[in-house]
Amino acid sequence: MARIGVFICHCGENISATVDCGKVAETIGKLKHVAYSTEYKYMCSDPGQTLIKEAIKEHKLTGVVVAACSPRMHEPTFRKACAEGGLNPFLCEMANLREHCSWVHEKNDLTTEKAIDIVRIQVEKVKLNSALQPIRVPVTKTAMVIGGGIAGIQSALDIANTGHKVIMIERSPSIGGHMSQLSETFPTLDCSQCILTPRMVEVAQHPNITLYTYAEVESVEGFIGNFKVKIRKKAKSLDEKTCTGCGLCTTKCPQKKIPNEFEQGMGMRPAIYIPFPQAVPNRPVIDREHCTYYIKGKCKICEIVCPTKAIRFDQPDEILELEIGAIVVATGFDIKHADFFPEYGYGKYKDIIDGLQFERLASASGPTTGAILRPSDGQVPKNIVFIACAGSRDPAKGIAYCSKICCMYTAKHAMLYKHKVHEGKAYVFYMDIRSGGKNYDEFVRRAIEEDHVNYIRGRVSTVFERDGKLIVKGVDTLLGAQPVEIVADMVVLATAGVANSGAEDLAQKLHVSYDAHKFFAEAHPKLKPIETNTAGIFLAGACQNPKDIPDSVSQASGAAVKVAGLFSQNELTREPLVAVVNRTAPPMYSTCVGCFMCQSVCPYQAIEREDFKNREGKIVKTVAKINEGLCQGCGTCVALCRSKSIDLYGYSNNQVYAEVVALLNEY
Amino acid sequence: MSDFEPKVVAFVCNWCTYAGADLTGTSRIKYASNVRIIRFPCTGRIDFMLLLKAFANGADGIIVSGCHPNDCHYTSGNFHAKRRWIMFKELMDFMGIDMNRITFSWVSAAEGAKWADVVNTTVTRIRELGPYVSYKELVNKSVEEEVKNE
Amino acid sequence: MKFGIYPGCSLTGSARDYNESVFALAEAFDLEFAQIPDWNCCGATAAHNLNKELSLALPARILALAEQNGLDEIIVPCAACYSRLVVTQNELKKNPELKNRIREVLEMDYHGTSKILNVIEWIDKYIIPKLDEKIVKPFNYKVACYYGCLLVRPDKVLNYDRAEDPQTMDIVMSKIGADPIYYPYKTECCGAGFSVSRTDIVSKLSGKIIEDAEHRGADAIIVACPMCHSNLDMRRSDINKYWKTEYKIPVVFVTQAIGLAIGLSSEKVGLKRHFVEVKIS
Amino acid sequence: MNSLITRAKELLENKSVQVVIGYEAGPTSVARPAFITDPAKAGTLIYDERCVQNLAVYLTKPEVKHLGKMAIVATLPVMRSIMMLISEQQIFADSIVVLGISADGSLLDIADVKVMQGYIEKSDLGNPEKYKELLAELNKLSPEERFAFWQKELSKCIKCYACRQACPMCYCTRCTVEVNQPQWIPVQSNTHGNMEWHILRAMHLAGRCISCGECGRACPVGIPCHLLTMHLVDQVHNYFNVYAGTSEKMSSVLSTFEPNDKESFII
Q: Around C108, how many Cα atoms within 13 Å sit in the side-chain half-sphere?
C-alpha cells in the first residue's frame, strides 16, 4: 500500500503569493494513499529538508512529492534528502508550482486549482515509481578543449597541470584567438601579444596537451566520462614533421591577394601562409580555396622552393577517433558585421571600420605597424568618431543585449588614438558607460579627463559621405537633445559581439542547448554558469556571451576545476532512467517479437540483439535488449514499440497513463 | 458559454519546451492557467494513444511540444515524433476527429515568450470552439452501450 | 486585372498630379481601378493622436468596404494613408479582441483579408514585368530617390524594405534608365504635417533635403508620397526664402517618371500642375 | 493451373520445401487456404478469381513454420507482405520459395528476392482502384460527417480481432490490446473503445500496410477498416514518397526520418 508524503513549498512568497498553499496541502492530504501532506516556507533549506527526512521515517513513506520549483532546479537536492531519510531517491518526484504556476498566473482560485492538479499528477506518478539503483560507468580521463583562444588555452593548461591529458582542437591554423589580434588590453594597456604568446607556447610544449590545429569536431557520441569524438583534421597540405617553418614558401607564393583574416581584411596574405608571426604551431597551411594549384592544377612553386620537401598536395583530411571524458567548449565569439546597419555606411566607405579592424591598425604588428592611418588614403585622421552600441542594446534593429566589452575597448581605442595622434580630436557617441570592473571606471575617466576624448551621450542616426568627409549625424541628449553633426575623417563602430559562426552546428553535435542568439546556454544562469545541460560538457569564455579577458580566463579556470573534479573519480554514477525490454512471460521470455524497428530509431545504438536458445542450443527467439550503459532514456523506442514490450524507468507507460487519467478526472 | 474554462493538457519534452516553460516562469510572463503540463524526456516518447486518452478523459484541447528540428537533446527523437504526428494528424482528420483542438509546436528552452503565446492562442481557440462535445458524447454513449450489453 | 484604389484626401486635392499619373500608368498597362465606394478619411495624423479606437475604426471601415466589394488587392498611393491602413490591419490581426470591438464600432463585418499595396509594391508587381517592352524614352537623368518616413515604416509591420536605407525606388528608377545617386537624405524628415501650421520648420528640414540632392548633382528628386511632394514642391518658395537660395530642382512622382519613360505626355502625367517647373519631358 | 501444380509437386518431391501454402476449393464456392505436405496431394491446388486471401499471414504462424521450409503461392500483395516480413526480420529470404502469380493469373518465375523486387517495382503499388473511389468519397465529406460515419461503422465492431488475425503485418505475439498495465484499449466492445482500437491498428500499420484489404474482408460485420490503413498508404506516399513492401532492406516510415520532412501544422 502506497504511503505518499507531499511537501508544499512557499518558496518565500514566490509560490504562496499567488497559490493558496494551505488549501493545496489540505486538499492533497485528503487524497487516497497520501499519508502526509504539509507546507513550509523554504523546503530546500536545511530545516525544510529535515522535515522531509523526518516525515519519511515517522510516516513510513513509500514515496515523496516535493511541490516547489522546477525539477530542473532542485530535483537532485530533494532526491538526496530522501536518500538521507532512508528512501530510495528515485521514489521522489517534484511538482513544479513556481515556474509553471505561481510565477505565470494571477492570484485566484483557478491558479490554486491548477497547483492542486500539478501536485496530483505527481502523486499519481510517484505511486508507480520504482526504486532504482544508479548505473555506474567508468571515466576516461582525457579532456577535450574546443577552441584555442585565451579561454581554451587557460582551461587546457589548468587541466593539464592537474596531471590529466588534454586534447585541444582549433579550427584555424593557429591558436591565439581574438586576443592575439588585439593591440593593447584594458585597463592596463599592456600589449596583448606579450602576455598571450608565452601561454600559446606553453600549450604547444606541455607534455599533457595534444594540439590539433586546422581541425574541427565531426561528431560527438556517448555521454559524460565516455564521449566518443570524431575530429576532422583538415589537410594542411604539408608534412608538419618535415617542415621547419622557415616561411620561404609563403614569400614565394604568387597568389598574394587574399584578404588576411588575422588583419580583419586590412592586409593581404598568400595562399600558403602562417596566419601571424607568433602563430602556434609556426607552420604554414595551404588555403586550398585560393591556391592556384588547386584551382587551376598548375603552380606548385611552394613545392619547388621548399628546402625540406615538406609540401604534400595530395594530403587528405584525416578523421581521428578519440575517447574523451569531458569537454570544454571555448569557441569564442564573433563581431556582428557592420553592414547590417546600412545607415552607418560600413562597407560603403573604406574609412568606416569596426573595432577589431581598429585593433589591427593600432597594433605594432598590424598592417600599419601601429600608426593610425585611414584605410582609404593612408592619411592620419584628424577627427575620429567612435560609435558605441553599434547594434548592441538595440532590440528594434540589432540585438537586445549589451555586448559588455565595447564601452571599455572604445575608451581604449580613443585613448590609443589620442596617444598616437596628439593633435587629433576623438569623439565617442555612447548610450551609457558600463565600466564595472576592477580599475575599469578609472580607465574611462582617464580617457575623458586626461586624454580629452569628447564623450557625447546620444545615438548616431546616420553616417554619410560628402565631399570626401564623413558626416556623422547624432544627438547630444545631455545638451537638451541637440542635433550634433561631426565632420570626421574616420569612424569606428563598436559592433555587437555575437555567437561565433558554426556555433549552432557545434551545439547540435554536442547536444547542448543554445539561446536565441546562438550563444551556448549554461545549465543555470546563476548557480551553474559553467555547466551545460549535458553532463560532462562545460563552457569557457565568450562562446556563452560576450566577455572580456579576465572574465574568460576566470571561467576557463572554473571549467578546468569542473573537469578535474570529474576526473578525480574512477567511476561515475548515472541516473538509471533508461529503457528496458520486458523479460516476463516465459517460456518465450519477453513479449518482444523482434521486429527491431526500435533499433533504427535509437540514436545511441543502445539496442542489441539477444538470442534465446533451447536445450539443443538452437535459437528459438531473438529479442531486443537495451545496453543500459549507452541508453540515454529518450524513450523514442518505447512509443514506437507496437507490442509495448519496451518501457522506460521514470516515464513508464503506467506512469504517464496514470498522469493523464488522474489529471482529467474528479478526485 | 462565457464560464467555460477549457481543459488543456500539454505533453512536452523535458529539454526544450519544459525548460522553455520554466523560462516563461522566470521571466514572469503571464498566460492562461488552463494548461496542465505532463513532462516527457522527449517528444519521441509521447505515445499517440495518450492524446486519445486525454480526449477520452475530458480534455478539450491538447498541446504537444518539443525541441525544434536539429535541437533534440537526443538528436532525433523530435524527427521521429514529427513523422508520427504527420500520420496521426492525417488519420484523425480522416476519422473526423477535430485536429483544431491539438496544437503541435516547437518551443525551445530560450522561447519562454513563445510558450506563453502557444498556450494563450490554444486556450483562446479552444474557448471559441467550446467544449469537445462530440467526443464527450461518444465516450458517454459508449459507457451506456456497455451498461446495455451487461 | 482590377484593383481597389483608395485615393484619400490628397489624390483628389493637392496631389491631383499624382492621381493623374497613377491612372495614366494603369491605363497604359491595361490595369483597372475600382474606387472603394463611400470611402472615408484614413484618420491621417490627427486620429491616432486623439483616440486609438477612432484611429483604427476609420481605416478598418475602408478595408471592410473593400472586402464587401470583393476587392482583394487595394492600392493606396498616398504613403500616409498606406501606413494607416497597414498598421490598422496588423493591429487587428494581432488582437482578436480589439478586432471584435472595432467590428462593433463599425457595425460592419471586418476580416482583414485585403492585400494593401503601396505604389512601389504595385509597380513592382504589375508594371515592372511588362515595363521593358514599353520604354520608348529612357529617363536618362540623375535622380535622388526620396522615400520620406511613411513608405517603409514601421518596418516590423511592413517588412518591405530596409527602413534606414531603402532600395526599391532606386531599383525601379534604374529600370527606366535613370541613374539613382547615393543620397543619404532619402529618409530624412521633410516636416510632414507641419506643412500647414509651421511652414518655417518645413522650410528648414525640406531645405536640407533639397540642398543635398542639388549638391550631389541630381536632376530631379523622385517621391512616392503626396505629403513629401507638397513640402518639397509647393513650399519651395518658402524654402528658398528661408535659406536665401534659388533651388530649382524639380520634384517628380515615381509614377510620373515611369509615365514619361513609356512615352506619356507631361500633361497626361500631371507635370503641369507642379509649382517648381519641371523641364524634363 | 497445371504449371503451379507441377511446380509444387516438384518442390515437395525433391524435398526443397516441406510445405506448400496455396489455395484449394472449399466445400462451398469459396476457396480456402491449403497446406500441402504430400506431393500426391498437390493436385488439389487451385488458382482463380476466388483466391483472394493474403496467404502471407501464415508465414509467421508457429504451427505452419513448424512444418519446415515453405513455398507459398504469392500474388502481388503476398509478395509485398513477404518483403515487409523479411525487412522486419520475421522470416528469412532463403527459407521461402515464392510461387509468384502475375496479375493475369499465370505462374511467375521468382528465383530470388531480387527478382521479386524487380517484379514489385514494376507493378502498380497504390491502393486498388475500387478502394480509391471509396476513399475519395469519404474525403469529400465534412469532418462532422466523417466522424458520424466512423462512429456508425465502429459501433458494429465486436472486437473479435479478425482484422488483426488476417493481417500479415500483425504478427506480434502479444498485441497492445492484450496489455493491461495500463489497459490501453478497453476489453469491452463499445463505440469509443472500438474507435481507439482501430486508430491504434491503423497507426501501427502506417508505412507498413501493403493495401491487400484483407482486414476489411475478414471483418464479420462488414466494417471497412481497411480504408483507415489505406488512407495512410496514400498519406505515406504523399508525404514521404514511398510504398511499403518494395524492398527487403527498407525500414518503415515511422522508424526512420529525413531532417527535411515537410509538414505545415507544427508552429
A: 17
